[in-house]
Design brief:
globular, alpha+beta, 97 residues, four-stranded antiparallel β-sheet
Length: 97
């Protein structure tokens, strides 16, 4: 199952270059069990440890919502969101515990 999740994450982030746990789970309202979100977060962390993605903390500016995002290593998600005038900000996660 973890290999399938990792592949789903890598496929989902091809365009626009990043994805969130919600997008991988296709859960726009955050209604799925926390266990499902935990498994996706762990898969993203495994990919980050292997250098296949960078992790970002994504904050929606119009709602008090924060989520984990995985992006292509060369993508500066914070600058990308700012240039597009997105309703979110991003902060790179430098280390994974």
């Amino acid at each position: 199952m973890s290999d399938e999740l990792e592949l789903a994450i890598l496929e989902r982030m091809q365009i626009p270059g990043w994805t969130t746990t919600r997008a991988v789970l296709q859960d726009p309202n955050d209604q799925l069990p926390e266990e499902d979100h935990r498994r996706v977060r762990e898969a993203m962390e495994r990919l980050a440890r292997r250098g296949l993605v960078t992790l970002w903390r994504l904050k929606l500016t119009r709602q008090p919502v924060e989520m984990l995002a995985a992006a292509k290593p060369e993508l500066e998600l914070d600058k990308d969101l700012e240039q597009r005038g997105a309703w979110a900000t991003a902060a790179r996660i430098e280390s994974i515990e």
